[in-house]
Amino acid sequence: MSTTTEAVGSTGELRGNWQAGVLGGVAGALVMGGLVLAMSPPVLAVAIPSLYGLAPPPNPGVGMVVHVSHGAVLGVVFAAIVGAAGIEGATRQVGLGVAWGVVTWIGLAALVMPVWLSVVGSPASPPFPNFAPPSLLWHAVYGAVLGGVYAATADRL
User: Fold this and answer.
1) Is the peptide bond before 56 cis (omega within 30 degrees of 0)?
2) What is the distance between the alpha carbons of residues 29 and 146, in angstroms, rounded to a whole number?
3) What is the pLDDT of residues 12-27, one digit of tens each?
């Protein structure tokens, strides 16, 4: 006797391309990291590695590794949003990327990071909330690069 089981309905498969999300997240974080280094090196050298007890002393290399890792993870979340919302077209994906960058700025950089740095006793702990305009620029650029790389690679990976 043989039995066959078939899944009926939704397969639970997301339409977003997580690999393109990782690639876009890494590229966006690298570009953003370059801006941070040019505009405010202590953010990358002290604040970001302090999140995990990796500074002081200042270490921009470790900060960049942590930052790019965050960018990759947030790129996967972006890919899931693209897939769940069915966002198609490069212009819409770049626009969503910029919006995602702003959301991460509000939620993570302005609200979570100051609390986290204060809890771990970082010397780079900013005030809460920390709605710093340069950080908004950096996160918007991250999102634009993320969205652009995602749009360029999602159908190829």
Assistant:
1) yes
2) 8
3) 555 789 999 999 999 9
